[in-house]
Amino acid sequence: MRLLLVGGCALALVACSGKSADEKAMQNAELANYTPPFVMSRLDFGGVIERRFRRLDANNDDKLEPSEISPRRRDFAMQFDTNKDGVISTDEWSRGMLAWFDRQDLNHDGTVTSDERERARELHDADLPTPDDEPANNSTAAAR
C-alpha cells in the first residue's frame, strides 16, 4: 500500500513538473537521438563469428579467400591466416576473432561495451562488428 502511495506521489510530481513546451521539445529531441550503449558478451560474439564466416564464405568451401573479404577489412582478416596458406580456415577465423574481442575487452569481464570499443578505436584497433555490419548473404559478400 505504501509502495502504491509513493509511486502515485512520484507520478503526480512528474506530471506537475511544469516543463515548458521548449523544455519538452528539447527532451523529446534528445530521446529521439539517443543511442543505447553497446554491450556484447564473448558468448554472443561467438555466434557473430560463425555467422560472419558463413556469410563471407561465398563458395561454401569452409575457407575464406582474400577475394571473399571486403577490401577494407582484407588486411586485418588475413592476419588470421596463421599457417600462411593464403586462406583463412574456420579455426583460424575463430581464434583470430576471439583474440580481437579479448583485446577490446579492456577490463577482462567477458563483455565489450561502447566505452571499450571507443578506447579500442583510439588505440587503432578495428571495431567489433554489429549485426548491421554483417553481409546480408553470400552474394552480397562476394560482390565486395
UniProtKB/TrEMBL annotation:
Q: What residue stretches are annotated with the EF-hand domain? A: 68-103
Source taxon at top rank: Bacteria
Q: Where is the signal peptide?
A: 1-21
Which InterPro entries does the annotation name? Answer: EF-hand-dom_pair, EF_Hand_1_Ca_BS, EF_hand_dom
Q: What is this protein called?
A: EF hand
Keyword Signal part of the UniProt annotation = yes
Query: Per the record, where are the segments of Basic and acidic residues compositional bias?
Result: 108-127
Outline the segment boundaries, as ranges, of region: Disordered.
108-144
Question: Which UniProt keyword terms apply here?
Answer: Signal
GO molecular function terms noted in the UniProt entry: calcium ion binding
State the organism of origin: Sphingomonas palmae
Q: Which is a Pfam family this sequence falls into?
A: EF-hand_5
